[in-house]
Amino acid sequence: MTAPAAVITNPEEIAALVRESCHRGRTVGFVPTMGALHEGHASLAEAAAAECDDVAASIFVNPTQFGPHEDFARYPRALDADRRLLAARGVRWIFAPDVAAIYPPGHATRIVVDGPALPFEGALRPGHFSGVATVVQRLFAFVPAQRAYFGQKDWQQTLVVRRMVADLALPVTIVVRPTIREPDGLALSSRNAYLSAAERRRATGLSAALAAAARDWAAGAPVADIEGTMRRIIDDHGIAVDYAAVVERESLAPLADPAAPAVALVAGRLGTTRLIDNQLLDGRAGAA
User: Fold this and answer.
1) Rounded distance between C-alpha atoms, residue 19 and residue 25, angstroms
2) Is 41 in the active site?
3) Domain 6-177: CATH architecture, name and number where available
4) CB within 8 Å of 106: residues ≥ 6 apart
5) How far from chain centre, in Å, is Cα 105?
6) 190-279: what fold?
């Protein structure tokens, strides 16, 4: 029978538990989440449990990464179900603070981000990645684990976090794990729960566009043609396209070398729900 994971709300308590484990020579893995967990999050917890002696996870819906007209209030919250999922995957501690614990009265410091935080999600959601970087730095301070696990589905976010960790010399290794998908290709996301049955069927346009991009990229097609095909596929599925781009993998800058490793990024809206996805593209020979 799976032992229940301890739910801790006090930052000082979780910090003491993690530090004690580290002082005993144990490796601690950390999985930051906003809750409403699915098998993508479960895969992160499983990877952490396989690679570390102890695993902590956080559940915190961070208000500073939501814009004024975004879905903070309706973001799904299911602590009991999340606790069971994490415990079944080997998580020992669940840090579930309230907002005042992360942002106490008088809190006035926010991390300013640049570089990979500027295009795409950064341009469409001003302040989003500043909020992400600020909360992740706070969580790393409260859960001083040696390794932290993130999913590839939020590729731009992983770049922002890795850049912040390097720039601030934070003593944590960032581990990025593959995206987990439904059998029809749709990337798992907490926001999928917002989709109607019809929207759910149309949402596969994002993964279909990425599959086409991977095929065309391997065949040596020009980047502009690949991007045009992605847009057409997304539009044909009734998804309002925010972007469909093939860019440099680490900087997200336009490709200077059409044969270099790249990433295809897509984002679009179905009704009031906004979804993102991506596909890593290996370096290729004979590109146009």
Assistant:
1) 10
2) yes
3) 3-Layer(aba) Sandwich (3.40)
4) none
5) 28
6) Pantoate--beta-alanine Ligase; Chain: A,domain 2 (3.30.1300)
Backbone angles phi and psi of 79, in degrees to 5:
-60, -40
**Percent share of the chain, pLDDT over 70:** 98
Give the dihedral sign, CA 56/62/65/66. Answer: positive
CB 116 within 8 A of CB 163: yes
What is the rounded distance in angstroms from the CA atom of residue 149 to the CA atom of residue 43?
10
Residue 264, CA distances (Å) to 214, 233, 250, 257 in order: 8, 14, 12, 15
Q: For residues 32 and 148, what is the distance between their CA atoms, to the nearest angstrom? A: 8
Q: Say which of 23, 41, 128, 237 is annotated catalytic.
A: 41
- In angstroms, the CA 276 to CA 229 distance is 17
Q: Is the pLDDT of residue 70 over 80?
A: no
Opening angle at CA 62, ends 59 and 63, nearest 5: 150
d(CA 2, CA 35): 20
- Structural tokens at position 148: 């932290």
Average pLDDT over residues 241-255: 97
Fold matches, 6-177 and 190-279: no
pLDDT in tens, 170-202: 999 999 999 999 999 999 999 999 999 999 999
Domain ranges of the chain: 6-177, 190-279
Q: Which residues of 210-231 are buried (b: 16+ CB within 10 A; e: fewer)?
A: bbbbbebbeeebebeebbebbb
